[in-house]
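Example record used in the benchmark description.
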Amino acid sequence: MIVKSSRVDASFNRKTLFVFVPSVGLAGTARVRLKFDTPSVTLNVNDVVKLRDSGGTVVGLGTVVSYDAPYAEISGKGHGLFTVGAGTTQDVKFYQSNGATQTGIASAISLADYTKFGAEMRSVGCAFEYGTQGVVADGIGVKLRLFATNFNHVGSGNDFTNDSTLTIQSNEVVELNNGQVSFVSIDQSGDFRVGDAFVVQQETGNVSFASTTYNLETTGNLTVTDGGSNQSQLSPTSLTVGDLQLASSTVSSDSGDITLDPAGGNKTIIQGDLSVTGIVTAAQLYAGPNGIGIGISEITGPSEIILDPSAVGDNTGKVIVKGDLQVDGTETIVNSTTLSVDDKNIILASGAANDAAADGGGITLESGDGNKTINWVDSTDSWTFSENVDLASAKTYKINNVDVLSSTTLGAGVTQSSLTSEMKNLNHMHYLY
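Model output (structure tokens):
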């Protein structure tokens, strides 16, 4: 290990702490120590370990020089870089000394110890002022732990005017070739930093986190407040923001409605089914780009709309219209076997201006032997039957509520028929004789 430092002059602390480790490691015989999760075989000396990335490329390769399950030491640093995958699955495979014949696998590498090729240094309460760089860690296995560190105008070189525009924050800590620096620091502006992960700008009050993943553990709830009545609370099982609560896969409100309000004309998109147990209130509803649309007083849709009450698909169930039903199309087809109408009067040719306009109106009974019709014929000014009319027994034909003909009798009021004239002649002849 080589440690370099320099001073600006007697009144200033170190200008730069530089830690560099040559590749041969401690005493020139250093080795990397690896710990394998669930190895499937016992490794032998000269066996080969390979670590591949998600694309199948070998990123770490080494030859085993000793093995004490589950730990193995490899010759030197090997080739590439072995990384830790604790808690995840890695592509770790073992081979014979030829590097081609596979013998086993491991689920992951939980320890990749390069410390014999580096150095661990700890510092409490130090300052780095001016100069071009603050701390440099160069080489795998180099680990620097700095606490209560003061970086003042790092990057300004030999300019001692405290001109903050000359500082270069990225030069405060430099990591090269997998060297690591962990630090808690404050700079000339009073900015408090915990590595690159957490920054508090004390002059502005801004707090920021790096865009990475953190595990935040607390024994109770975490509450964020503005000092007044407004607050948000985070617990391991719920999140409460004002009156809105998210818990157990449920979004609920302690008070008032819940409003989803996308910006501008954007949509609220739900991937999956939507189940509503209450009432849906909307100005319009649409089912797909070519589906049914339901407005305040109108249902629109494709050229054919099907209402199919349970059981679906077997033409059963019932559709009930409470109120009048008006059909404005040109054709109304009823395929049911029973038609029941409460109305005592059925209107045909509604709105016909005169008899001529109603000509041909009536009722048609379809038959393969010829249709049977009752039609209004304007030219004869009559209802015309295409078939015989058969009255039930004891029924008669009437005109103006007067019987004119029964199955056996001609009505008494009928005086001008040929049948009555013949009867008079017979009566007269009987009288002469």
